[in-house]
Amino acid sequence: MAKVNIGLTEQQRYGVIDLLNRDLSDLYLLIIKTKKYHWDVVGPQFRTLHELWQEQYDALSENIDATAERIRALGGYPVGTAEGFLQLATIREHANDLPLATEMVVRLANDHEQIIRNLREHIDRCSQEFHDEGSADFLTGLMEQHEEMAWMLRSFVEGEQLEGNGDRPGSQTKPTVNA
Predict the structure, then answer these.
(1) CA 25, CA 37: separation in Å to the nearest integer?
(2) Within-domain flag for 8
(3) pLDDT, tens digit, for every residue of 64-78?
(4) Is the torsion defined by CA of 90, 93, 99, 102 positive or negative?
(5) Could you tell me the CATH number of the domain that includes residue 88?
(6) How many CA atoms lie within 13 A of 15 on its CB side?
(7) Which residues make Cβ contacts (< 8 Å) with residue 162, sequence separation at least 6?
(8) Domain encompassing residue 40
(9) 168 found inside a domain
Protein backbone atom coordinates (compact mmCIF):
# COMPACT_ATOMS: atom_id res chain seq x y z
CA MET A 1 0.00 0.00 0.00
CA ALA A 2 1.29 3.44 -0.90
CA LYS A 3 2.27 5.74 1.94
CA VAL A 4 -0.16 8.59 2.52
CA ASN A 5 1.67 11.94 2.61
CA ILE A 6 -0.95 14.69 3.01
CA GLY A 7 0.64 16.78 5.75
CA LEU A 8 -0.79 14.82 8.67
CA THR A 9 1.07 12.32 10.80
CA GLU A 10 -0.15 8.76 10.87
CA GLN A 11 -1.42 9.34 14.41
CA GLN A 12 -3.41 12.40 13.28
CA ARG A 13 -4.89 10.56 10.29
CA TYR A 14 -5.90 7.55 12.36
CA GLY A 15 -7.41 9.79 15.03
CA VAL A 16 -9.60 11.46 12.41
CA ILE A 17 -10.43 8.12 10.77
CA ASP A 18 -11.66 6.83 14.14
CA LEU A 19 -13.94 9.87 14.55
CA LEU A 20 -15.25 9.52 11.00
CA ASN A 21 -16.00 5.82 11.54
CA ARG A 22 -18.00 6.75 14.63
CA ASP A 23 -19.94 9.31 12.60
CA LEU A 24 -20.44 6.77 9.81
CA SER A 25 -21.85 4.29 12.31
CA ASP A 26 -24.38 6.81 13.62
CA LEU A 27 -25.35 7.74 10.07
CA TYR A 28 -25.91 4.09 9.20
CA LEU A 29 -28.17 3.44 12.16
CA LEU A 30 -30.05 6.67 11.46
CA ILE A 31 -30.65 5.76 7.82
CA ILE A 32 -32.02 2.37 8.87
CA LYS A 33 -34.38 3.99 11.38
CA THR A 34 -35.43 6.65 8.90
CA LYS A 35 -36.28 4.09 6.22
CA LYS A 36 -38.09 1.84 8.70
CA TYR A 37 -40.28 4.74 9.85
CA HIS A 38 -40.78 5.79 6.21
CA TRP A 39 -42.20 2.33 5.51
CA ASP A 40 -44.28 1.98 8.67
CA VAL A 41 -45.80 5.40 9.40
CA VAL A 42 -49.60 5.51 9.42
CA GLY A 43 -52.24 8.08 10.19
CA PRO A 44 -53.22 11.51 8.92
CA GLN A 45 -49.56 12.58 8.71
CA PHE A 46 -48.63 9.61 6.50
CA ARG A 47 -48.04 11.45 3.23
CA THR A 48 -46.13 14.35 4.80
CA LEU A 49 -43.84 12.14 6.88
CA HIS A 50 -43.43 9.51 4.18
CA GLU A 51 -42.15 12.16 1.75
CA LEU A 52 -40.03 14.00 4.36
CA TRP A 53 -38.32 10.79 5.43
CA GLN A 54 -37.63 9.80 1.82
CA GLU A 55 -35.89 13.16 1.32
CA GLN A 56 -33.90 12.70 4.52
CA TYR A 57 -33.06 9.11 3.61
CA ASP A 58 -31.66 10.26 0.26
CA ALA A 59 -29.53 12.95 1.94
CA LEU A 60 -28.28 10.48 4.55
CA SER A 61 -27.35 8.00 1.82
CA GLU A 62 -25.20 10.63 0.11
CA ASN A 63 -23.61 11.58 3.45
CA ILE A 64 -22.79 7.96 4.23
CA ASP A 65 -21.01 7.59 0.91
CA ALA A 66 -19.15 10.90 1.34
CA THR A 67 -18.05 9.94 4.86
CA ALA A 68 -16.76 6.54 3.71
CA GLU A 69 -14.90 8.24 0.87
CA ARG A 70 -13.37 10.78 3.27
CA ILE A 71 -12.09 7.87 5.38
CA ARG A 72 -10.55 6.29 2.26
CA ALA A 73 -9.00 9.64 1.22
CA LEU A 74 -7.21 9.70 4.59
CA GLY A 75 -5.86 6.19 3.98
CA GLY A 76 -8.28 4.33 6.20
CA TYR A 77 -11.08 1.85 5.75
CA PRO A 78 -14.68 2.53 6.70
CA VAL A 79 -16.58 0.29 9.06
CA GLY A 80 -18.78 -1.87 6.89
CA THR A 81 -20.59 -4.37 9.09
CA ALA A 82 -23.74 -4.17 11.19
CA GLU A 83 -21.76 -5.38 14.20
CA GLY A 84 -19.18 -2.65 13.68
CA PHE A 85 -21.84 0.04 13.31
CA LEU A 86 -23.60 -1.09 16.49
CA GLN A 87 -20.34 -1.08 18.45
CA LEU A 88 -19.37 2.46 17.44
CA ALA A 89 -22.74 4.23 17.21
CA THR A 90 -23.99 6.55 19.93
CA ILE A 91 -27.61 6.37 18.82
CA ARG A 92 -29.55 3.20 19.53
CA GLU A 93 -32.06 1.01 17.81
CA HIS A 94 -35.55 0.38 19.12
CA ALA A 95 -35.87 -3.22 18.00
CA ASN A 96 -39.36 -4.69 17.68
CA ASP A 97 -40.94 -1.36 18.57
CA LEU A 98 -43.36 0.43 16.27
CA PRO A 99 -44.33 3.77 17.84
CA LEU A 100 -46.99 6.20 16.72
CA ALA A 101 -46.04 8.77 14.09
CA THR A 102 -45.29 11.59 16.53
CA GLU A 103 -43.00 9.37 18.60
CA MET A 104 -41.19 8.36 15.40
CA VAL A 105 -40.58 12.04 14.68
CA VAL A 106 -39.37 12.70 18.23
CA ARG A 107 -36.97 9.75 18.13
CA LEU A 108 -35.47 10.82 14.81
CA ALA A 109 -35.14 14.44 15.99
CA ASN A 110 -33.36 13.22 19.13
CA ASP A 111 -31.02 11.08 17.01
CA HIS A 112 -30.17 14.01 14.75
CA GLU A 113 -29.49 16.17 17.81
CA GLN A 114 -27.18 13.48 19.26
CA ILE A 115 -25.31 13.35 15.98
CA ILE A 116 -25.04 17.17 15.96
CA ARG A 117 -23.52 17.13 19.45
CA ASN A 118 -21.04 14.43 18.36
CA LEU A 119 -20.14 16.35 15.22
CA ARG A 120 -19.46 19.54 17.20
CA GLU A 121 -17.01 17.62 19.37
CA HIS A 122 -15.45 15.89 16.35
CA ILE A 123 -15.05 19.19 14.49
CA ASP A 124 -13.17 20.62 17.46
CA ARG A 125 -10.95 17.55 17.76
CA CYS A 126 -10.21 17.44 14.02
CA SER A 127 -9.18 21.07 14.08
CA GLN A 128 -7.46 21.42 17.45
CA GLU A 129 -6.11 17.98 18.27
CA PHE A 130 -5.45 16.52 14.81
CA HIS A 131 -4.90 19.74 12.80
CA ASP A 132 -7.08 18.46 9.96
CA GLU A 133 -9.04 21.47 8.78
CA GLY A 134 -10.31 19.57 5.72
CA SER A 135 -12.08 16.99 7.86
CA ALA A 136 -13.32 19.71 10.24
CA ASP A 137 -14.85 21.51 7.25
CA PHE A 138 -16.35 18.27 5.94
CA LEU A 139 -17.94 17.55 9.33
CA THR A 140 -19.22 21.13 9.58
CA GLY A 141 -21.15 20.58 6.34
CA LEU A 142 -22.64 17.36 7.73
CA MET A 143 -23.57 19.11 10.98
CA GLU A 144 -25.40 21.87 9.11
CA GLN A 145 -27.45 19.27 7.22
CA HIS A 146 -28.36 17.48 10.46
CA GLU A 147 -29.32 20.79 12.06
CA GLU A 148 -31.77 21.41 9.22
CA MET A 149 -33.19 17.88 9.39
CA ALA A 150 -33.63 18.14 13.17
CA TRP A 151 -35.33 21.52 12.78
CA MET A 152 -37.76 20.07 10.24
CA LEU A 153 -38.63 17.23 12.61
CA ARG A 154 -38.93 19.48 15.69
CA SER A 155 -41.17 21.86 13.73
CA PHE A 156 -43.49 18.99 12.92
CA VAL A 157 -43.83 18.04 16.58
CA GLU A 158 -44.19 21.58 17.91
CA GLY A 159 -47.22 22.16 15.73
CA GLU A 160 -47.83 25.60 17.16
CA GLN A 161 -50.50 27.63 15.46
CA LEU A 162 -50.28 31.36 14.98
CA GLU A 163 -53.05 33.70 16.02
CA GLY A 164 -54.70 35.81 13.33
CA ASN A 165 -52.32 38.67 14.21
CA GLY A 166 -49.20 36.49 13.75
CA ASP A 167 -48.56 35.91 17.47
CA ARG A 168 -48.20 32.49 19.03
CA PRO A 169 -51.08 31.51 21.34
CA GLY A 170 -50.48 32.84 24.86
CA SER A 171 -47.75 35.23 23.73
CA GLN A 172 -47.35 38.17 26.12
CA THR A 173 -45.26 40.38 23.89
CA LYS A 174 -46.29 41.99 20.67
CA PRO A 175 -43.73 42.42 17.92
CA THR A 176 -42.87 46.02 17.17
CA VAL A 177 -42.65 47.37 13.69
CA ASN A 178 -40.34 50.28 12.97
CA ALA A 179 -42.14 52.91 10.90
Answers:
(1) 19
(2) no
(3) 999 999 999 999 999
(4) positive
(5) 1.20.1260.10
(6) 17
(7) 168
(8) 14-157
(9) no
Give the least confident one: 63-72, 94-103, 124-133: 94-103
DSSP SS3 for 45: coil
Q: What are phi and psi of 148, to 5 degrees?
A: -65, -45
SS3 string of 112-165? HHHHHHHHHHHHHHHHHHCCCHHHHHHHHHHHHHHHHHHHHHHHHHHCCCCCCC
Distance CA 48, CA 45 (A): 5
**Residue 50: C-alpha distances to residues 101, 118, 164 (Å):** 10, 27, 30
Residues in contact with 133: Cβ distance below 8 Å, sequence separation at least 6, in sequence order = 126, 127
Chain mean position to CA 155: 16
| Total structural domains within the chain | 1
CA angle 154, 157, 160 (to 5 degrees): 100
Query: Among the listed ranges 40-54, 72-86, 118-132, 162-176, which one has the minimum average pLDDT value?
Result: 162-176
Q: Report the C-alpha gap between 74 and 12 in whole angstroms.
A: 10
